[in-house]
Prior knowledge:
Elements: E1 9-15, H1 21-27, E2 34-37, H2 41-45, H3 52-58, H4 60-80, E3 87-91, H5 94-107, H6 113-129, E4 136-141, H7 144-154, H8 164-178, E5 190-194, H9 199-214
Parallel strand pairs: 1-3, 1-4, 2-3, 4-5
Helix pairs in contact: 3-4, 4-5, 4-6, 5-6, 5-8, 7-8
The structure holds 2'-deoxycytidine-5'-triphosphate (DCP).
Amino acid sequence: MAATNNKPFTVFVEGNIGSGKTTFLEHFRRFEDITLLTEPVEEWRNLGGWNLLDLMYKDPAKWAMTFQAYVSLTMLDMHRRPTATPVKLMERSIYSARYCFVEHMKNNGTIHPAQFAVLDEWFRFIHHHIPIEADLIVYLKTTPSIVHERIKKRARSEEQCVPLSYIEDLHKLHEDWLINRTHAECPAPVLVIDADLDLSQITEEYKKSEHQILRKAV
Ligand code: DCP
């Protein structure tokens, strides 16, 4: 595959916690000339020895703002990373950080309105002044109770206390952003994939998106 211009066809892979975003990206590792950018969770778990993800879950009132500020920085780094291949697949984006996670923290009062205002200003500045390429959003749509079970099974230590209600709230926020379009910025067309299926069946579902992602690369 040859790049037709300098800008790669850029795909954001979005969906609830535990919806299989990493597995989806791994599915595309078999193809040539695709850059896969998985979410920098490990950076969030170790910034100079500090586990910001853990601090955020243990004491959200104190750490949610710090955590989301760092998430925005790492996301911006991924958005801006030069890509030599014709296709770039990214796990999440600054948009889901803002419209799902920060939105939730504002709605339920985890962060002070003044903290929200600062995060929102950062988001607006980035959105208006820094070019963020987006050609397609793959939405891994799931049922909250199903992903909640997956989260419990995978047992990431920081997520042990995540209640079903949080997953339900995040589901609604993803739906509002990507399906109901309640925010002004949905930066690209949305391809919805049924991500409730378990690992033995999901490959067939993922294959349905190959054409839309790969045909852009030839
Ligand atoms: N997270 C957050 N705020 C963000 C992004 C993520 O609080 N802006 C948290 C939620 C999870 C962890 O970080 O505890 C990773 O969440 P993701 O849904 O981004 O990644 P997963 O690893 O759950 O993805 P998947 O299981 O779909 O591969």
